[in-house]
């Protein structure tokens, strides 16, 4: 087999890059991705600049539970991912001046950052639709001395989900 | 060896198809009569309903009149197709909600169906966040005799 040259070589590299891009896109869409968290809103749990492994199986499996840390699209700014903890799901009681009924509306979740003082969350923009929840943060991998699980259940484990 | 090659090719092909659907656009079928004079989706037989082409480009700064698909704010597993009737900063008067006038918050759309008789739209669930928007209907691609731009 002779070595490819010129246009053929360029074509081969382009094809390789396209295949790599498509496979990477599908993995990040269906499996999960690496997220670099920024901002102080989850401070004691996640610091600014932590590298976290996030998965999408629990979203597809409808297994997002109260207490999970999720990545959620900002309802006011499209394509901005917020990293917050789910404080309450639909129908559960919540105290907020934005909710006169005192309960989270149907199909919505109430998000709250761990750093109550600085976090901009559902206390400011109200409960968000569950369709905005994109990924669930599962494992912190960087920095190494604080590496560890962020979630308390597997994505298939629905045992402690309340009806 | 032959089998493995076929498997790799099929996987890469599927990934390429999904990537194309995500970054360019994809076809979808209209189900339901809420967009009735514009889009026909009321028939129970699937081959009598319309197919539209949904582009995934320029979803976030749309003007009133654009037809968009979005994930329902009440049920994350269903997708709706509606028309924008007002954008952020405008003031609307919902038909059924208690409050008389609502200002549409930042980054939200007011989505209404074209069919005034049967619709489940922003008059019921309020303004829709533009982050929920998944596609913009650009063409009717099926049936061929109604092929047109939207």
TrEMBL record, chain A:
GO cellular component: mitochondrial inner membrane peptidase complex
Family annotation (Gene3D superfamilies): Umud Fragment, subunit A
Keyword entries, A-Z: Hydrolase, Membrane, Mitochondrion, Mitochondrion inner membrane
Domain Peptidase S26: 13-95, 102-142
UniProt GO BP: protein processing involved in protein targeting to mitochondrion; signal peptide processing
Superkingdom assignment: Eukaryota
Major localization class: mitochondrion
Active site: 41, 84
Pfam families named in the record: Peptidase_S26
Alphabetical list of InterPro entries matching this protein: LexA/Signal_pep-like_sf, Mito_IMP1_subunit, Pept_S26A_signal_pept_1, Peptidase_S26
Subunit structure: Heterodimer of 2 subunits, IMMPL1 and IMMPL2.
Any GO MF annotation of the entry: serine-type endopeptidase activity
Subcellular localization(s) per the UniProt record: Mitochondrion inner membrane
Name of this chain's protein: Peptidase S26 domain-containing protein
Family: Belongs to the peptidase S26 family. IMP1 subfamily.
TrEMBL record, chain B:
CDD domains in the cross-refs: S26_SPase_I (cd06530)
Taxonomic source organism: Caenorhabditis japonica
UniProt protein name: Mitochondrial inner membrane protease subunit 2
Organism taxonomic ancestry: Eukaryota, Metazoa, Ecdysozoa, Nematoda, Chromadorea
Membrane topology: Single-pass membrane protein
Record's subcellular location: Mitochondrion inner membrane
Presence of the UniProt keyword Protease in the record: yes
GO cellular component, one term: mitochondrial inner membrane peptidase complex
InterPro entries xrefs: IMP2 (IPR037730), LexA/Signal_pep-like_sf (IPR036286), Pept_S26A_signal_pept_1 (IPR000223), Pept_S26A_signal_pept_1_Ser-AS (IPR019756), Peptidase_S26 (IPR019533)
């Amino acid at each position: 087999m002779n070595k490819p040259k010129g246009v053929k070589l360029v074509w081969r590299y382009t094809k390789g890059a396209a295949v790599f891009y498509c496979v990477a896109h599908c993995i990040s869409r269906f499996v999960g991705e690496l997220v670099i968290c920024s901002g102080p809103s989850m401070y004691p749990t996640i610091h600014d600049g932590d590298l976290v492994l996030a998965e999408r199986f629990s979203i597809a499996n409808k297994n997002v539970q109260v207490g999970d840390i999720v990545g959620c699209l900002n309802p006011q700014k499209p394509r901005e991912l917020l990293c917050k903890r789910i404080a309450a799901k639909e129908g559960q009681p919540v105290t907020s001046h934005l909710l006169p009924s005192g309960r989270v509306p149907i199909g919505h979740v109430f998000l709250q950052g761990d750093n109550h003082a600085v976090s901009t969350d559902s206390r400011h923009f109200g409960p968000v639709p569950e369709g905005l929840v994109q990924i669930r943060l599962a494992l912190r991998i960087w920095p190494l001395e604080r590496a560890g699980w962020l979630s308390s259940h597997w994505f298939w484990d629905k045992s402690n989900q309340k009806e | 060896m032959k089998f493995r090659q076929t498997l790799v090719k099929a996987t890469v092909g599927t990934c390429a198809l999904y990537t194309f659907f995500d970054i360019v656009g994809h076809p979808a079928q209209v189900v339901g009569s809420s967009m009735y004079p514009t889009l026909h989706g009321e028939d129970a037989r699937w081959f009598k309903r319309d197919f539209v082409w949904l582009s995934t480009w320029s979803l976030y700064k749309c003007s009133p009149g654009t037809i968009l698909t979005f994930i329902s704010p009440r049920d994350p597993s269903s997708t709706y197709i509606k028309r924008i009737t007002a954008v952020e900063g405008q003031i609307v008067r919902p038909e059924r909600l208690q409050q008389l006038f609502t200002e549409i918050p930042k980054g939200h759309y007011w989505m209404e169906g074209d069919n005034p008789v049967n619709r489940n739209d922003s008059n019921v669930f309020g303004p829709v966040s533009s982050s929920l928007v998944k596609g913009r209907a650009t063409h009717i691609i099926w049936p061929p005799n109604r092929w047109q731009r939207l």
